[in-house]
């Protein structure tokens, strides 16, 4: 009514609305309440400044009468009158409608948050599974590395067997020229031809081939670990990149790969000098020769001295017999000394074999550990994001539970309207 100039305009608009509403809704009984909200508000506000019966004051106010707002109030009060059963039922229906809508919205929210929570928990489980997959990868690498270790060990074993065979061929009583050469060589720095043959034909080729194979083994480790590192990094990015924010992505981008390791197996071979091994080989031969033929020479010298000083031939024969027995005893120990020398060579070779095998296994473990450190480092932003998401959803669930409890209380209060 506030926008119309007189009563005739109000009646004209009212008739127009009734007619079109009747056509639209196909009903005859249509009640409209044209009001002047401005006049009603002014009248309501004016009576607030006075004590007494506000209803009586409003009834005497021309603005209130002209606003016709009292007709709308009367209709609303009669419709929502809680003093009658019909009014209570109407109030209950009016209140249950928004409560029902809120209940359905709450149910949808609870279901959605629950699903999101389960997804977040599954994301965290998947992240842990990716990290734990390193253990499976480590077992696979250990299995594949066995062939590398066997190849490397076979080179050492072959060199050991050739060295033993050469040593056996040198330490023969029938090989008197070579034995004599070693016996009278002394501590000269120049290696003898047989020792040079040991160095150039056995030790150097074996160490060179072993070093080449260990280099390939190291490259294989780096390649496999690099592939696995990229595979797991890509899995994190593809599955969980949406979980992390810009700051986490920047931090993730600055993470560097860990080093390739010490390559301990290669260092073991580098530290095993061919020259030192050759001199050790020659020293073992000299000890066997001197330990045997040195005793034999001492026995001969003793026999010569005794026969020159003893007075009778019988005593000379006895002296020769005892000295010959001493020489025979020295020669009889030759086989034992040769066996000891061979065992020393075997021991050195077996020690090198064990050291290389342990170093290869350690190279493998270090590479896998480096990979694990890297994966744990790049997984932190994803894990923290998943954990924060779970915590946030748990809070949402608590809040929704509180809202659900309040709605339940409201439903009870609405149902109790009949009992009032």
TrEMBL record:
Classification via InterPro entries: TRAFAC_Dynamin-like_GTPase (IPR051943)
Gene Ontology annotations for the cellular component aspect, listed alphabetically: chloroplast membrane
Keywords: Coiled coil, Membrane, Transmembrane
Domain of life: Eukaryota
Coiled coil: 386-420
Keyword Membrane: yes
UniProt protein name: Transmembrane GTPase FZO-like, chloroplastic
Organism per entry: Iris pallida
């Amino acid at each position: 009514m506030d926008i119309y100039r007189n009563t005739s305009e109000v009646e004209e608009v009212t008739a127009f609305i009734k007619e079109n509403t009747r056509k639209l809704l196909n009903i005859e009984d249509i009640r409209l309440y044209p009001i002047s909200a401005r006049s009603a508000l002014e009248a309501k506000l004016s009576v607030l400044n006075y004590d007494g019966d506000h209803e009586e004051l409003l009834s005497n106010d021309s603005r209130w009468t002209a606003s016709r707002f009292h007709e709308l109030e009367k209709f609303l009060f009669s419709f929502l009158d809680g003093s009658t059963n019909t009014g209570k039922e109407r109030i209950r229906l009016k209140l249950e409608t928004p409560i029902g809508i809120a209940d359905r919205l709450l149910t949808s929210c609870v279901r959605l948050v629950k699903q999101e929570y389960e997804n977040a928990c599954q994301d965290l489980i998947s992240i842990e599974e990716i990290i734990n997959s390193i253990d499976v990868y480590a077992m696979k690498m250990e299995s594949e590395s066995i062939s590398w270790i066997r190849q490397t060990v076979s080179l050492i074993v072959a060199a050991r067997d050739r060295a033993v065979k050469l040593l056996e061929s040198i330490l023969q009583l029938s090989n008197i020229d070579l034995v004599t050469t070693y016996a009278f060589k002394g501590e000269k720095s120049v290696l003898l031809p047989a020792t040079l043959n040991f160095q150039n034909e056995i030790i150097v080729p074996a160490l060179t081939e072993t070093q080449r194979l260990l280099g390939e083994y190291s490259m294989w480790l780096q390649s496999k670990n690099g592939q696995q590192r990229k595979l797991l990094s890509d899995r994190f990015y593809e599955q969980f990149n949406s979980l992390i924010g810009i700051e986490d992505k920047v931090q993730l981008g600055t993470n560097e790969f860990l080093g390739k390791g010490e390559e301990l197996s290669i260092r073991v071979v580098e530290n095993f000098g061919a020259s030192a091994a050759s001199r050790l080989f020659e020293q073992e031969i000299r000890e066997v020769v001197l330990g045997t033929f040195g005793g034999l020479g001492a026995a001969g010298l003793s026999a010569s001295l005794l026969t020159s000083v003893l007075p009778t031939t019988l005593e000379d024969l006895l002296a020769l017999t005892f000295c010959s027995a001493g020489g025979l005893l020295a020669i009889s120990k030759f086989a034992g000394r040769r066996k000891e020398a061979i065992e020393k060579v075997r021991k050195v070779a077996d020690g090198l074999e064990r050291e290389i095998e342990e170093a290869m296994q350690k190279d493998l473990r270090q590479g896998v550990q480096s990979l694990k450190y890297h994966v744990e480092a790049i997984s932190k932003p994803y894990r923290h994001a998943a954990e924060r998401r779970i915590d946030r959803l748990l809070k949402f669930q608590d809040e929704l539970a509180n809202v659900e409890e309040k709605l339940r209380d409201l439903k009870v209060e609405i149902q109790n309207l009949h009992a009032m």
